[in-house]
Amino acid sequence: MTIGSDIARGPNIPRPPCRGYLHKRTQSGLIKGWRKRWFVLTHDCCLHYYKNKRDEGKRQPLSSAKLEGAEVGPDDSLGKPFVFKCRPQYWSRVYFLCATSNQERKWLEAMERAIHPITQQNHVWVDVTKHNSNMPPLAVKNPDCLGLLNKMDKSKDTWIQHYCILKDACLYLYSGIRAGIYLQGYAVREQAYGSKKSTIELKPPSDEFKTFYFCADNSAENKWILAIKASIKKWRPFHQVLQDYMSLPPEETRM
């Protein structure tokens, strides 16, 4: 599913994203040594790297790895300071990365957090939304709003129509693939986008989350804006959700 914050994880609780230049040990080809690459650790626990910083968001990464369950830690086997290694789960490949002293601590902390996914097994609302995401649209009871919306696909610069259902601050999108967007903490406003003078902008509380743009028939757009705002207000503010999570004992936040 391609969604704002993954339904499989819980409401908008961000990962500690990290990005910057690291030197990566090259062990293949004729040239062996260290190459400078732009690394991005996203809030969905994926580590990507690009040839240059400017490639992020414009080109596909040279490689990507899921860090959940990975082995991460300092390494002194190469006789070089500030080196750490990362062995993704189910991979035979090991990344050897080198940073400055300050960067090493930042990256290690961020990657160690990404190893252990956040779970909220006792969160009833999360269980309900997971259940709803697997149901056909007409089976979702008492929706806050429903109907057709056009969602901007930025990768193709085109509007794609979805049948949408809003229920308890979660927007479910139906087409060939079912998806959902958690909207806790999102700001809702009417905004011009491209050639369209009026669209619905869903702005996240953090730049690490996606901004979404939807448009509807003129007669339905105001209905959706009012319904989304009202649905979000039913739930606790984002900063309160995040504060409650941070106050949990460490053992309750790990699998």
From TrEMBL:
Domain PH, first and last residues per copy: 15-116
Xref: Gene3D superfamilies: Pleckstrin-homology domain (PH domain)/Phosphotyrosine-binding domain (PTB) (2.30.29.30)
Entries under Pfam families matching the protein: PH (PF00169)
Top-level lineage group: Eukaryota
PANTHER family membership: PDZ AND PLECKSTRIN HOMOLOGY DOMAINS 1, PHOSPHOINOSITOL 3-PHOSPHATE-BINDING PROTEIN
Protein name: PDZ and pleckstrin homology domains 1
Organism: Fundulus heteroclitus
